[in-house]
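The freezer alarm interrupted the setup, so I double-checked each line after restarting. Inputs confirmed:
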Amino acid sequence: MSDDIPILRLGPNLMVTLQGNLEDTTVEHIERAVTHEVARTRATGLLIDVSGLSIVDSFVARVIARLVAMVRLLGARSTIVGIQPAVAITLVELGVPMSHVRTALNAEQGMALLREPTGR
Amino acid sequence: MTVLAEDAVLTMTINGEADLLHVRSMLRAEAQRAGLTLTAETKLVTAGSELARNIVRYSTHGQGVASVERLHRNGRHGVRVEFRDDGPGIADVEQVMRDGYTTGDSLGLGLPGSRRLVDEFSIDSAVGRGTTVVIAQWSR
Amino acid sequence: MGYAGAVVSDELSYYQQMIDNITEYEVIRLDDNGIVQSWHAGAERLTQYTAEEIIGRPVSVFYPPEEAASGRVEQDLRIARDTGRCESEGWRVRKDGSQFWASTLLTPIHVHGTVVGYVKVSRDLTERREQQLAALGAEQMLEAITDYEVIRLDRDGYVRSWSPGASRLKQYTEEEVLGHHVSMFYAEEDVRDGLAERELATAAREGRFETEGWRVRKDGSRFWANVTLSPIRDSTGELLGYVKVARDLSERREQEQLVQRQRDEILELSTPVIQVWDKILVLPVIGTLDSLRAARLTDGLLERIARDQAEVVILDISGVPAIDTDVAQHLLKTVEAARLMGTASVLSGVRPETAQAIVHLGIELGTLRSRNSLRDALQLALQIVGGTAAEREPVDV
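Predicted 3D structure, all chains:
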């Protein structure tokens, strides 16, 4: 199922990259694939790289927030990395509730955040 | 998707989810043509994506039309987009323009959220008559 | 001298009837001295004289007095007699003194090799002359307009007339463009878009279409043009073509952009982002924040965060005279956007009255941390950068 979705395994963590102009069905497909992959691999962390997204509308934001919540129920932590400046201010103006998601500037810092002993 | 080449206004029919991609690409190209800042461009494309999705989700058969018009005023350039559908329409426009109102499975951010992203926003809707939303974004 | 008049035959009466039926022309006979000998309806219509009033009078009464006095009539008759015809155009005078522009042909009548009189055929060309003058005037007007392109397109958008202004603007000569489609002046991406056809269609539908956009000169260079398209229709409303007026706004656009750049630079100066330490930025907010400055501040800060990969940003508001709801909301949005990018914010320089205002306004502070002075804020920032990643997230979920 995850054949066409770039999910990378990095030690105990998984990394998924979202990029380009995404159709809603693709986003939902990724959500399912990643959830299954986290369960299958028993990963403890998930890095969601969105640096390749030039827009994140409320649908995509909602799916990402949902993914973070589901992954948490599977016992793993998530960090979103690489939100573009224009995307960040757009999400704030749009009013998408994202306060529960952890973010980092880049994959490296995201990994560091996942390695922190604090949290779940 | 069809781009009708019979008008100075670029018109695009919205028929399904795949057309969201076309609306985004078209708005991005028009925003860059008008010289909008990256932030203004991103907000316009995002608002357009929300409004096009509303058409796909809530209008009759998920069909509607997006029309783009190029604006020039006092040396500033802008992009105006009209999203029109002949769907069921909205009974209480004021209510849906409030944050948190939701129909179907939407988060209810579509309309009020889009309004916050653009320089100009207007909505015209009535039950049985469909909905028309017009947004515009200007260069500085 | 009465010879011609005395010849009466059936043949002649047919001719007279024919002439009587000509109403658009004056066809009269003069004797060898230029005295009017015959008259008919067409002549009366043209000059208002009846036969009784005019027969027997000299042809010079039809000429303006100054021309008659200059011997013009005698000269024309002589030319007709000597060369077989005399054609002329000029002002002629009606009975009421009004003038009309006429073309006149004088031919001699010969009897046995002797000129016994003349046939004079005249036609009123006033209207045609007016039209010619008007056309000439319009043409000269177009010639004189060099700052604008004024050209005509046919209904399908092919160039049918060119003007000096158009040559100046686009560098093409008339031969190079006549018969070509107007899209030859459009930028490549607009040609692909079918923009020219859409603009013509809109002009035809709306009665007029004005736009601004890039157009291309012969040498391939682009200029920013203001273009107006107006449809030309015949009396039945059938579309015949378009008049296209264009001018070069490049200079104005450049000036606008220069002003814009200067304004940006001033805004840039008024919202400077300073890197005070590795991964730590300070944004000293000084003066009143209007919405334009506030938006610019946010854009500038977020872009700088991305460029420097800054982990902490200190927003120093000690230089802001008053924090109202809008400014406070804007600052908090900026803080939230920075957080989404993965950057922590520290507020510094909050004065007691500002603190009161923010709390009284009921603004949700969220995860925002604040320090009284810039020094304390920097100390906290260094702690965050040097410490564990968790310290970046004061409320860890």
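Quick read of the result. The longest helix of chain B spans residues 38-58.
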